[in-house]
């Protein structure tokens, strides 16, 4: 007993006990931790990158270079991120049909699984905006009024007040936002495709993006209504002013002519 007591009072006894506890904890964690799941995820990601590289070599490398470094026919894809790939390919803008001032939207030629693989490969070339999750772009519960303020401050100059689109310089244009999915609206704000500036979360937080999406859906979605009457294309004060001048002033002139003609007849009689 005296020997055991002496060992317990030894200066290194606490260190030995601590090391033994750490070793036991590590052993138990290694035995029961879901290491297989993490390894499976890494394997799946590697396979997605490998398949994405094959798709890239066939459909993208001729313009963007074999390693995504860019050529005279297409910009570098290093650092554009998976969100840019998902937006451009899912909306059919890429692969481009022909060069021009702006690449238009068209039916896409890839499945969503293939788009995800392409996005995984391009994302592996350099860090960039990540494809958003549904919780990030879901407009449910967003502030539509606040979204309208943000849209008019940041977007209406090009897309018009209700997202009908508009012409820009040198053959470029801001496309209509009618029918664009919330996911693609969010990705466009993230990445700034073509002539559009980008609005990262540091500039426009996630909640503000959802507010804008809710506004666009409210004024330019499938269920949008116009309680104020005829929308006149939603193009804003220019079309409204033209309507007022042509039809409003025209109606006043017609009434004035009618009154003058009847007044003259009354005097003759």
Order of helices and strands: HHHHHHHHHEEHHH
The CATH architecture category of the domain at 134-226 equals Orthogonal Bundle
Share of residues in strands: under 5%
Return residue spans where pLDDT drops below 50 for at least 5 consecutive residues: none
CATH fold category name of the domain at 134-226: Cytochrome Bc1 Complex, Chain D, domain 2
Percentage of residues in helical conformation: 55-70%
Structural class: mainly alpha
**Fourth-level CATH superfamily of the domain at 134-226:** Cytochrome c-like domain
The Rg value, from CA coordinates, equals 31 Å
What is the highest CATH level, the class of the domain at 134-226? Answer: Mainly Alpha
Across the major sheet, the strand order is 1-2
The number of helical elements comes to 12
Instruction: Please give the alpha-carbon distance between the first and last residues.
Output: 141 Å
The number of E-state strands comes to 2
Biggest beta sheet summary: 2 strands, antiparallel
Q: What is the general shape?
A: elongated
Mean pLDDT: 84
Oligomer: single chain
Any key phrases for this structure?
58% helix; Cytochrome Bc1 Complex, Chain D, domain 2; 2 strands; mainly alpha; two-stranded antiparallel ribbon
């Amino acid at each position: 007993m005296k020997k055991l007591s002496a060992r317990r009072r030894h200066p290194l006894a606490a260190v030995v006990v601590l090391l033994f506890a750490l070793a036991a904890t590590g052993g138990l964690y290694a035995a029961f931790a879901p290491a297989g799941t993490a390894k499976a995820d890494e394997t799946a990601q590697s396979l997605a990158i490998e398949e994405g590289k094959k798709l890239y070599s066939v459909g993208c490398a001729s313009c963007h270079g074999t390693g995504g470094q860019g050529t005279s026919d297409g910009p570098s894809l290093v650092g554009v991120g998976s969100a840019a790939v998902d937006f451009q390919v899912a909306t059919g803008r890429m692969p481009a049909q022909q060069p021009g001032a702006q690449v238009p939207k068209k039916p896409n030629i890839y499945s969503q699984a293939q788009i995800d693989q392409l996005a995984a490969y391009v994302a592996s070339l350099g860090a960039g905006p990540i494809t958003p999750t549904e919780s990030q772009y879901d407009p449910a519960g967003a502030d539509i009024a606040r979204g309208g303020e943000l849209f008019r401050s940041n977007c209406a100059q090009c897309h018009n007040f209700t997202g009908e689109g508009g012409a820009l310089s040198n053959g470029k244009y801001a496309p209509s936002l009618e029918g664009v999915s919330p996911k693609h609206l969010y990705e466009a704000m993230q990445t700034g495709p073509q002539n559009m500036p980008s609005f990262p979360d540091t500039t426009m937080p996630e909640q503000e993006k959802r507010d804008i999406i809710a506004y666009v859906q409210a004024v330019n979605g499938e269920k949008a209504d116009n309680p104020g009457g005829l929308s006149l294309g939603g193009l804003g004060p220019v079309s409204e002013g033209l309507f007022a001048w042509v039809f409003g002033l025209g109606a006043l002139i017609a009434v004035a002519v009618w009154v003058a003609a009847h007044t003259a007849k009354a005097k003759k009689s």
